[in-house]
Design brief:
With 174 residues, the protein is an alpha+beta fold. It is built from 5 helices and 10 strands, in the order βαβαβαββαββββαβ. Helix 1 links the parallel strand 1 and strand 2. Helix 1 (12-20) crosses helix 4. The longest helix has 9 residues, at 12-20. The radius of gyration is 15 Å and the shape is globular.
């Protein structure tokens, strides 16, 4: 069973908060109205073939818990509002980076409650809990990225698919 959250809805933050409070059974969460295909125009390539994003409920729970480690993910202490704002601002990225294989990092022009930009790692053509062949855009993790400019300077130019120039770039404060 999937849970659907319309990211443009007034109820979206409340619904995300329910996952932080672990009011769920393990499932996949589908975020609608994210408009991922709009990024294709910005990055000038047909990378995202679907508009929606999915995340495993356990991953969503973990990224909202106090910093530290866990099994396969780190806890990042994100607020539900951080996730809501990051997903609502994905189509206005500061940059888009090819991380590895089918994984891409999208850094929205939004500053989290940590006063740092968030890095959203998305895997293309991913499977779901109950459908391993689902072929969806899946959020692997979301975390605050400190020293973003230093990180970008160390990357190979081919890995950076898009980066706003300084005149375009203006981070949105929460």
């Amino acid at each position: 069973m999937n849970k659907i959250i319309n990211i443009k809805s007034n109820k979206a933050i409340k619904e995300i908060r329910e996952f932080r409070d672990k009011l769920f059974a393990p499932c996949d969460v589908k975020f609608t109205n994210v408009h991922m295909r709009e990024l294709n125009t910005i990055i000038k390539t047909e990378l995202f073939m679907k508009n929606d994003l999915y995340i495993n409920s356990t991953t969503l729970w973990e990224i909202m818990h106090p910093e530290g480690g866990s099994g396969s993910h780190n806890y990042h202490e994100l607020m539900p509002e951080d996730i809501f704002n990051a997903l609502n601002n994905l189509c206005d990225p500061q940059c888009v980076i090819k991380v590895k294989n089918e994984r891409y990092a999208v850094i929205p022009a939004y500053v989290s409650s940590f006063t740092e930009p968030l890095m959203v790692i998305i895997e293309l053509n991913s499977g779901l809990i109950l459908n391993k062949n689902a072929n969806v855009n899946k959020i692997v993790t979301i975390y605050p990225k400190s020293n973003l400019n230093d990180y970008l300077e160390k990357l190979d130019e081919k890995e950076i698919l898009y980066k706003k120039n300084e005149h375009q770039y203006r981070l949105q404060l929460p």
